[in-house]
Amino acid sequence: MTDLSAFRAAVAARAAAGLPAPAGLADSVGLVAPAGLADSVGLVTPAGLAAPAGLAALAREAGVRTAVLLEGPSDLAAVEALAGRLGRELAAEGVCAVAMGGAMSAGPFAALLGPSGLGLRLTGLCDEHEQGFYRRGFDRAGAFGDEFFVCAADLEEEFIRALGVPRIEQVLAAAGDLPAWRTFARQPAQRDRSPQQRLRRFLGTRKGRKIRYGRLLAEALDPDRLPPPLHALFHHL
């Protein structure tokens, strides 16, 4: 199995620092590439600066051809779990899913990974109200023909709609969170909300819960009845 952790770490470090990369980034992750590698594969940033040869070398070693830009770690957990549910080995297919730490980072990540950077094919998944960040980021990176897919309103709502409250309560019970969910749902502040709205809020009330249930709810999905944006994403990959 291909290990993409070093590539993801290097991408996150450079995107967080902005373009161009901080001096020594390639050395910091132990990446050494032949002189001129960046030029040989046409890696040029919007500012005309060669992309780090070490990062390019790592992408080549891992066979990465497509980058899936995801808003956060809960989305990454869901996509990786669903890939397993569908029998897909994304790394072997040349696909690397990346958690950006928020949709506002779509611009730097697209610039680094897309046509203006490493030259990877771009795609992604985002919340409905964040799609503008993706569209602008893709366009500025020159990825005009690359598609991303939009959840209504977010991935948690897509899961709730696809699975339904009773099935999600089964998942909560298996994970030991059913008592906490029932206590939360009885709170006065939740009385005027629908069960679906309560569930969506519950999933975001504790640190780490969205990541955990990103994986668990993805694993609970019927592969033949995926939420539309997830179906479209995996069909596109």
UniProtKB/TrEMBL annotation:
Residues 65-127 form the OLD protein-like TOPRIM domain. Pfam families: OLD-like_TOPRIM. InterPro entries: TOPRIM_OLD. This is OLD protein-like TOPRIM domain-containing protein. It comes from Kitasatospora cineracea.
